Amino acid sequence: MDGLEGLFFGLNPALLTFGNSSVTPRIAPVTELARLAPENIAKAGGEFSGKTLESFRRGNATEVDQLAKNGLKKNYKPINGTDPKTGQEGKTIPDAFKNDGQSTVEIKDVKS
Fold first, then answer.
1. Checking DSSP bridges between strand 79-82 and strand 89-92, what pairing results, if any?
2. How far apart are alpha carbons 61 and 66 in whole angstroms?
3. Residue 83 main-chain phi, psi, to 5 deg
4. Lowest model confidence (mean pLDDT) among 10-24, 27-41, 49-63
5. Which of 23, 27, 45, 75 ranks highest by number of CB atoms within 10 Å?
6. Cα distance between residue 51 and residue 38, in whole Å
7. Which residue has the higher pLDDT, 52 or 41?
8. N-term to C-term CA, the chain
């Protein structure tokens, strides 16, 4: 798959949420990404540094690009999973599915 070399596939335990977590992540549809520009987050009282916001922007752009290049559709639905280390149940929202929904796709953009 073009451009997905080195990306993570499968259930990522680090992305699972467990227990009574008060943090509920929300992933914006691609059409809403412009709204999430650093300037708009700052106006809304966001407390992220400029470097972090730039990383968010770069990651969002990479995700959109890689999904398009590989003909994958963005996923917004959570799936249940079990942390292989603790056995705790939790939910995660993979970036996409492949192999008729049998495999999850997680797209990461990291600087070396």
1. antiparallel
2. 9
3. -65, 120
4. 10-24
5. 75
6. 10
7. 52
8. 21
- Cα–Cα distance between 26 and 33 in angstroms, integer? 12
Phi, psi of 4 (to 5 degrees): -100, 5
Instruction: Find tokens 């549809």 and name the residue.
Output: 29
pLDDT by residue (tens digit) across 15-31? 444 444 444 444 445 55
CA–CA–CA angle 101, 85, 67 (5° rounding)? 30
Q: Is the dihedral of CA 58, 30, 94, 106 positive or negative?
A: negative
Lookup result for tokens 């705790």: 88
CA distances from 80 to 10, 64, 71, 94 (A): 13, 24, 25, 11
Neighbours of 62 (CB within 10 A): 16
Assigned token pair, 96: 């996409």
Range of lowest pLDDT (16-30, 34-48, 64-78, 96-110): 16-30
The per-residue pLDDT of the chain, averaged, comes to: 74
pTM: 0.53
